[in-house]
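Backbone-to-sequence.
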């Protein structure tokens, strides 16, 4: 992190909490959001035209976005890498910025929901100012520890007014849609390890048709799921959840 709010996580990178706050105005996030929404904000690293082969040659020592268009006909698509080899946590910054800019609706699906405090707060603040939020997660994923670690975040989000939907079976999709104008889908889970430690990548959509399809698909999963009901934890469970979250990077 920058300034007095910095910490070093196990990847060896310094992560700035202020940069992850919705009002931080991270330059990389603003540039990518601007490109995606047509706002005209210049990104610090300009997107470049690329085909599939070009995408594999993109350097990893800077935060980069590649526009994948041309022969595939996928105009309006940005490739966003994430991982310890990147100079910035671009996916996390994009999520924070998009939450701050959301006006009406956010729909998301993820197998594991253990977000960092900044992203959780960004989602909560969106809910508290009237943005409709639907989150789809499996009732029981294939990682029991992740299910235990998510409890505090789910209760906090539900208390802010979010609707959380529990699917009967495992769902491994990772996607989030903001206002029908911007969507991210790929390998990044909404959990701290995936956002800050793992090598991941997302596709950022800015075209109406794929965004609408993705939103409809997530909402269809929500309609077939059971609603999450928050239950106040016992003292012992609350302490256990806190200890588990403190060890999130280690599990």
């Amino acid at each position: 992190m920058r300034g007095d709010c910095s910490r070093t996580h196990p990847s060896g990178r310094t992560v700035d909490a202020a940069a992850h706050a919705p009002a931080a105005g991270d330059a990389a996030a603003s540039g990518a959001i601007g490109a995606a929404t047509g706002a005209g904000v210049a990104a610090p690293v300009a997107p470049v035209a690329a085909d599939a082969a070009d995408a594999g040659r993109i350097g990893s020592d800077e935060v980069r976005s590649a526009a994948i268009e041309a022969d595939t006909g996928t105009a309006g698509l940005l490739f966003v890498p994430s991982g310890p080899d990147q100079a910035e946590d671009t996916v996390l910054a994009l999520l924070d910025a998009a939450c701050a800019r959301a006006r009406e609706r956010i729909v998301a699906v993820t197998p594991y929901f253990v977000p960092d405090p900044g992203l959780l707060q960004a989602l909560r603040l969106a809910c508290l100012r009237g943005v409709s939020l639907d989150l789809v997660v499996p009732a029981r994923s294939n990682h029991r520890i992740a299910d235990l670690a998510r409890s505090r975040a789910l209760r906090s989000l539900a208390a802010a007014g979010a609707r959380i939907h529990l699917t009967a079976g495992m769902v491994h999709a990772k996607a989030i849609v903001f206002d029908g104008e911007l969507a991210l889908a790929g390998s990044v889970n909404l959990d701290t390890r995936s956002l800050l430690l793992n090598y991941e990548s997302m596709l950022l959509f800015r075209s109406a048709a794929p965004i609408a399809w993705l939103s409809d698909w997530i909402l269809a999963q929500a309609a077939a799921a059971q609603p999450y009901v928050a239950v106040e934890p016992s003292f012992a469970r609350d302490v256990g959840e806190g200890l588990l979250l403190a060890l999130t990077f280690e599990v």
